[in-house]
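## Example pair
The file below holds two records. Each record gives the amino-acid sequence first, followed by its structure token line.
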Amino acid sequence: MRQRIWAVIQKEFIQTMRDRRTLMMLLSMPIIQLLLFGYAVHMSVEHIPTAVADQSRDSASQAYVSAMEASGYFDVVAYVPSQAEVTRAIDEGRVQAGIVIPPDFAAHVEQGDAQALFLVDGSDLFTSQSAYNAATAIADVHATGVLLEKFERSGQIPQDQSLLPLDALVRILYNPNLTDLWFIIPGMCAMILQTQTIALTTAAVVREREMGTIEQLLVTPILPIELMIGKIVPNIIIALINMLTILALGVFTFHVPFQGSFWLFFWLAFMYVFSGLGLGLLISTISQNQQQAQQMNMALALVGMLLGGFMFPRSAMPAALRLVGNLFPLTYFIPISRGIITKGIGIEFLWGQVVALLIYVFVVMTIASRAFKQGLD
């Protein structure tokens, strides 16, 4: 019995060592996951890109903005003239928060009735929560400091520490109640489209190769490009049906508001589908069997979910990880999905992501078509 068991163990070791790609995948995935969770996962977001509309331009307003920057939570990347420009910068994705300081801010601070408006992009869960909590806490600390400095100058002793001369009004745009599903549904639509198009296309081609029927197709008059199109068309339909199902459940069952144009979203999603199909064809030319293809699909889904901005904000990631995230179409479509569904913005605010996605689709489909044809030859 011991000899039989040892013989089976030897056989399994030999088969594992022969399939070096699967072996490397099994060995590297725990390391990749550990690195990704260690560097990319941040529940508390810092260095949030922020725009400032300082209409007062006095020492009090500058001190308030400096206090926000000194906290490490906010990085002022743009100064704009008005609240409308702050909102526009948030819509365009250039910033995720904005500070609007009204005129005569210093005079109102002295009178004890100053107010500053803080705008937060509510389409990003962790960013909005971190910005809300940080803005409130920093404003309280800064206001307390201003109050104590005022009493020190006057030589008086404060009787009521709650009478702060500055009040920060924090407003969450697009999702004022911070409802989780309003964040999740737009990202789920993008995630499902990518994972299913990759998985379905990969499985369809690899299954033919594994069963030996791919050779039978090659002896027919059908061309490789025709075979590729025939393989991907059913997958396009299945992926779009699943996307529409998730979207319909989110809107009608969970009452997630769809603020933008449905047809704009549909046609951009249709374009986005081809990026997943291209990745699926690339995997199919590399994979030798369905098990290996499934492992690669799982790896792409995990890395894309972490680095594409589905769960965690890309602004909190190191530059190297953001570059890796650019290799996934999910990175470009999530801002499109959230922008149309949650914010209700049009293509004039999303043209950067649309152009990037178009280039990505063209490149990946070109590479995939050539690799697919070479694999058949």
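Second record, same layout:
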Amino acid sequence: MITQLLSPTQTAAALPYERLVSEIESLLKDRTVQVPPRNVHTLHGGGSLFVMPAADSRVAITKLISFIPSNPGRGLPTIQGDVVVFDVATGQRLFLLDGPTVTARRTAAVSLLAAQKLSPHRNEKNPGPLLIVGAGVQGRAHLEAFHEGLGVQEVGISSRSLASAQALVLRAHSLGMRAYCVNDPNAVLGEFPLVVSATPAQSVVLTAHPRADAFVAAVGAFTPRMLEWSAEVCQHLSKIGTLVVDTRDADQEAGDLLQAGLAVNALPNLADVVQNSPLWSGQQRRRDANKFDGPVFFKSCGWAGWDLAAARCVVGHLAR
């Protein structure tokens, strides 16, 4: 059997956000899904090698990617690698997906699902404006996902690189959106009901408080040492807002929250929200009883289950 090798363009085409979000939600209800802890190997020079397996009753995957923070200075992508997909019944390789494309799209799709479930503005026709802090691959993926899945029509872009911010503004214009560069995200954070932080997360970038009705997707930090939001902001949000993590893996990986001294293992995760678990429903009852309102902070660290959902989506796409 010849394994199908999907290019970045082909991988993206097989992962439309609407179907990918639906597959992620379906996976969170699938009891056959098995996701062992990912292995992270430190490389010389400060990089990391991630080995991430997962499987359900039909499909098994392993994502093998490298993360090299210094690569932008070399003109190379920060994340490189592949996702290998197998048929569970036969063990045959089905196809090989472009790892960075899968990572970008499934991460944005997870944030989109969280926004659809948690944002105070989720029922509005054209919510926003959206602030994106970090104009790299994840910034672009979240721009496209929130435009396609929520109907966002206006976006502010902030980046340490003006050229990157301007390039993402042009991409937004090509989608018919109103878009502009933001010099200081902290100075305008209170003006945006939707916020995505997708910085390299090597140091604190965001020190201002989100507005009371904001939904924040924080995706830049995915190891205990990384962070992009200040400890003071995270502690403030834990008191007046709602904190949700993507999976229980965040208990050991949510750098922003861990470095703020918060008990991440006590927070609800996205599966709790989708399944309306006692942890989530209890929190909602307390909010309703206290007429409590405040920003929602969704911390995403990544999980091989999201890559498995992407593989399931591709299986369905190629079967058409």
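Notes on the second record: The longest helix spans residues 99-118. The chain has a mean pLDDT of 93.
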